[in-house]
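Subject: design request, 154 residues
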């Protein structure tokens, strides 16, 4: 019997989930998840208080969480949650600042021969170049997202 692959998502701690979701959606050409249908149902049932929500891009959204999903992957239209490749952003208190190097990071692989153009595109979205790496194993650029999380562009 073959085991079913485990469904997973990458969750990032953040101070501004919606800003991070917007950055990473643009960086990866993903879509920001729309949870407003689920939120509307839960509000209508009185199952959630309005204080845990905010208005974002003209719709109700979770105050402390946002997600992005690959545009070609399936998603649940009732919840708006992606069922495939997905990043989630959860708000953490300001005192939980990032203090060291990431233990896990994302590697981006753009079109062959277009690394510098991709670095420029990501910089225009708010990323910053930390350094260029040239080693016998290859070349890449280490960047940080708007909150300082490292990622690599190959």
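Subject: RE: design request

Done. Sequence follows.
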């Amino acid at each position: 019997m073959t085991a079913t692959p485990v469904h997973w998502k990458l969750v990032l701690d953040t101070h501004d989930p919606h800003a991070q979701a917007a950055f990473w959606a643009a960086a990866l050409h993903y879509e920001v998840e729309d949870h407003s249908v689920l939120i509307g149902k839960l509000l209508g049932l009185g199952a959630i208080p309005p204080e845990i929500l905010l208005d974002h891009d003209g719709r109700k959204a979770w105050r402390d969480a946002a997600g992005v999903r690959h545009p070609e992957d399936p998603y649940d239209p009732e919840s708006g949650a992606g069922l495939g490749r997905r990043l989630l952003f959860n708000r953490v208190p300001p005192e939980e600042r990032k203090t060291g190097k990431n233990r896990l990071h994302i590697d981006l692989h753009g079109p062959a021969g277009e690394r510098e153009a991709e670095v420029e595109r990501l910089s225009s979205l708010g990323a910053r170049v930390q350094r260029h790496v040239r080693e016998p194993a290859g070349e890449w650029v280490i960047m940080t997202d708007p909150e300082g999380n490292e990622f690599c562009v190959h």
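Residues 9-95 form one domain.
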